[in-house]
Fold:
Amino acid sequence: MSIEHNASSAEILPEENSATGVAMPTKARNYRGLLSFGTLVALLAIVEACVRGFDIPAYIFPAPSDIFRSLYAGFAAPLASRSAFYTHILTTVSEALGSFVCGSVLGIVLGGLIAEFPLLRRLALPYVIGLQSVPKVALAPLFVVWFGLGISSKIVLGILLTFFPLMVNTVAGFAGVEKDRLELMRSLKAGSWKTFRYVKLPSALPFIFAGLEMAAAYSVLGAVVGEFVGGTSGLGVLMLNRNAALDIAGSMAALVLLALLGIALQKLVTMARNRLLFWAPSKDVLRNAEPEPD
Amino acid sequence: MTVTPDHSAPAAATGMPAAKAPAPDTSAITVRGLAKSYRSGGRGVVNALAPVSFTVGDGEFVCLVGPSGCGKSTLLKILAGILKPSSGEYRIHKQGGAVADCQIGLVFQSPVLLPWRTVLQNTMLPADALELDRDAMRQRALQLLDMVGLKGFEQSYPSELSGGMQQRCSITRALLHDPPILLMDEPFGALDAMTRDIMNSELQRIRLESGKTIFLITHSISEAVFLADRILVMSARPGRIVDEVIPDLPDRGSLDVMTTPQFGVAVHRIRKLLGIDVRNRPNVD
Structure:
């Protein structure tokens, strides 16, 4: 027995802790962060120099410093004033979050049902695919007519956009569960609920998270397009207004905020993914292509 | 490590009608005329398994050898309750002493561990599936992991283990609910030859300690002779059981038995039954 023991302890390799996702020491990470920040500053400096050097008018392309000034002005303005960002940010964030949450839940539930019940799959799938081939953004004017200029028309559009990637990924995730795992559960006399809970759902999670990452981007898109078509507040409305006033710096300031919102949502999904899916290899192609730090 | 209470309680005590079981109740598995065929799109009906009949005695270690595609795995999946047979019948006899309703423990060719569960949690899967007492099962899982040499790896994840260790974990999972019968489908087929030898002698030890009935499928003739009390030899399509071989070995505990003349005799016999003539070029395995 003790011989077996030694043999087995020798089998484990003293490799890095890949399962927990602890990647690199803090020192290396700080260094990398500094490098990225430096690159950003340098890029902005180059743009600034070009705009000023070539004397490009601010109503064509504003210098980064103008955009920063505009950002500052938007945050410095009194809370309730029309030129302040706060109400616009609140509107767009609630639209994006609302459609992200509702669309995801709807997509996951319907995807799960379609995967579990073949009859439903046959009934619902043609409509779902038909809906998918409609360019959904083109429905935005209709939604504004039906649901008004407020937040709800944007949420409906966002749901339509986020729902599909989640449903497709959920169906793919459930359909792709390893046959051996299902047979294992059947040999243990596990019913469909236990098989779902212990095997199918966790097996499908990597796919579902891939869908959530797409949905995070689509939900912001839905909010902005909805606001473009017709709205009273929101970052999209702000962009249109500033554009109309030829305040391109202001328009770009709104764009920066939209980008930050998109990044924040994406980051939330990634954080949840890292927590729940520590066991699954990351599907992030761009990040995996990075060479290992030495 | 005494995990198995004796199964001496006769099966008749469970109130089975006498007419249904004419054979003495010392068998753990009875298979009569079991066959499986299914419709395949282009080729009509495919016979996956021709009718086979055999019994496995209580506490017996039976190996099934045969070429690829003869229906061995289909047979095992039927016995495990995963597939339904097209015709024929089989009985897994109720034994006393089993903790759960589930009479069998199944070991696949690949470990089939769930990557989001630790080694201990993977071993505990039958406790979740069969709703067994968690505390008692946890104690048992720790004991079993100790028995197969995985002590200290309880909180590791499968991706951190070697192939041999993963397969050992899958064996503890199959043993957790103390099933009287173990069904194994080429459990060591994916391992390298040396690990395979180690696993074989460990399996032999587990079996001698626990007295479980084991039905194991393998390609490897020497593995079958080393492990089994009795070897069923299956032919290629249509998969029928051609004959059985009972190796007459002096000492089962050690791998050295593989160098004895009796071992060679048994291996030779099986090769002949499988139609692998050494002078002709072997075409199987």
User: Anything to note?
Assistant: Chain A is about 75% helix and 0% strand. Confidence is low (pLDDT under 50) at residues 1-22 of chain A. Chain A has two domains: 19-56, 59-278.
